[in-house]
Amino acid sequence: MLFSDFSDLCTRLEAISGRLEMIDVLQGELPSLSEGELPVFVRFIMGRIFPDWRPEKVGVGPNLLYEGVAYVAGIKKESVVRTINREGDVGRAVEHILTTKEQTSFFTTALELEEVYRDFTYIAGVGGSRSQREKLKVIRRLFANAQPVEGKYLARLLLGELRIGIGEGNIRDAIARAFDVPSVLVEHAYQARNDLGEVALLAREGADALSGVRIELFRPVKMMLAQQGSIGAMLAEHGAVAAEMKYDGSRFQFHKKGGECRIYSRKLEDVTHALPDIVQALVGATKHDVILDGEVIAVRDGKPLPFQFVLRRFRRKHDLDLHIDEITMIPWVFDLLFLDGTTYIDATLSERRAHLESVLGDYIAPQLVSDNTEEVEEFYREALEKGHEGIMIKAPSSPYTPGVRGKNWVKIKPAVDTLDLAVIGAEWGEGRRAKLYGSFLLACRDSGEFIPVSKVATGFSDEMLAIMYDLLKDTVLSTSGKEIVFEPSVVIEVGYAEIQRSPNYSGGYALRFPRFICLREDKSVDDVESLAQIGERYYSQVTSVKP
Ligand code: AMP
């Protein structure tokens, strides 16, 4: 497939708003793709370059991209930035620049989809002191050979912002229809393999290939997530529930095969080197080959410390000397996904728990199975007294659904009125904060797009504003007057008094009295709240006010 055909398809898809029509167009495209093209196409159309479980990142920020485009167009970088500010969108700006550029070379070669992928892979792999220059070389070559519309989508892919508004669910359904296999099988295989590109290849082979998928050691799967809910509703729905402490730390996934093991963070980054004490603890606690799911917490004098202490450790890039770290880390394990060659995500929580208890000698998160409201409430009180965030209530008969924020896991904590949102813009501060960003524009997600729902300016210390500036300064996509637009990469947790209906934001909702609570460096922008969830919260507010 030519990259120009891919780009034309993106243009077509961008113009479609109906879900079914989108699926139709995609479905028509998939069968004709070659073995090599199919996985690349599927990932690209999702706005991704590499499989979700792979650690590679292209590592091309706006600056490098603008420099490459400027070179190819024979203009100054400032001029690229001005066009982006005027257009308000990097993709459209690059398209415009390439349309008007003087023809610097007459002999361009048509870009192939797979060739673009190979170049991205090469860029992701270059390291060392010359890496920026090497990356720039490849970027220049790509853009020099790109038609304007190709430039638009190359830029967006490189920045991780394709923005054609196709949700994962639509791509899954298109794959299912294109190869005539059940959608649930595609979804299930995706959960286990964590790469929809590879799953498309399996779907082409047929239903048997899809249902035969297994989890593999050292290929992290997405973590199962929780919704907000209530003790009463869970008991009413499931009869008995499994309750655990909600630990305020960092999620981890532990993979072990013989003497080899790795620990992955919630973003599926390999953080093994930063957690030698956790490795030692868990390796000492089981002889089996396992994949375990849990939460690492930091403790001092027997009391849990805020999760920032854990994050600090997760962030360490180098091996550390544990003697200088007086904080104790505890890996509380609450699930088992794989044991000695068998995948357990389809087993019930009760079965997984039984296996967990039989193979792990220590660090199993205490669990209360109960059908009694008072008992569960007492457990909740106990959790809060011990300094935990609250409790998690889980349906004992539920499977492990990677990446799904379903109703089978529910979190109960006192202050429920917070949201995790992506920072997509800012305004410069004033007075002593004039050299820092002072207020931030926050967005939730809807079918892969970021939808603004609030601005937040309160709750930041000067120190936190400096940290925010550091995190965001290299992700600036455009500026206009005091306003700055970022490539979404940072997630923060905000508190609010109420969700309101609002014509000021395209999603139709706004937060009343938003305030910054904390940075969520453990979360990626894929994890932020969805517009639908915000809608649900709005309606539950309304119904609790007016029964
Ligand atoms: P939240 O980050 O507020 O969406 O809450 C969900 C998170 O709580 C999970 O992703 C875990 O990192 C964490 N957590 C703490 N304790 C547990 C537990 N017992 N079971 C599952 N998740 C837990």
The distinct bound ligands, ions and cofactors come out as: adenosine monophosphate
For the secondary structure, the number of strands is 20
Largest sheet: 7 strands, antiparallel
Tell me the helix content. Answer: 25-40%
Rounded to the nearest angstrom, the radius of gyration is: 24 Å
Overall outline: globular
Give a brief rundown of this model:
The protein is α+β, with helices and mostly antiparallel strands. The protein contains 20 helices and 20 strands. Helix 11 (183-193) packs across helix 12 (196-205).
Describe the protein in words.
The strands form 4 sheets. Strands 12, 13, 14, 15, 16, 17 and 20 form a 7-stranded antiparallel beta sheet that branches. 40% of the residues lie in helices and 23% in strands. With 547 residues, the chain is an alpha+beta fold. Helix 1 packs across helix 9, helix 3 crosses helix 12 and helix 7 (113-125) packs antiparallel against helix 8. The model has no long low-confidence stretch (mean pLDDT 91). It is built from 20 helices and 20 strands. It has helices spanning 3-14, 19-29, 37-45, 62-73, 77-87, 90-100, 113-125, 131-144, 148-158, 168-178, 183-193, 196-205, 207-211, 231-238, 276-285, 308-315, 349-359, 373-385, 462-472, 531-545, and strands at 225-228, 241-246, 250-257, 260-265, 290-300, 303-304, 328-339, 342-343, 367-370, 390-394, 405-412, 418-428, 437-446, 449-456, 476-480, 483-486, 491-495, 498-501, 509-512, 515-519. Bound molecules: adenosine monophosphate.
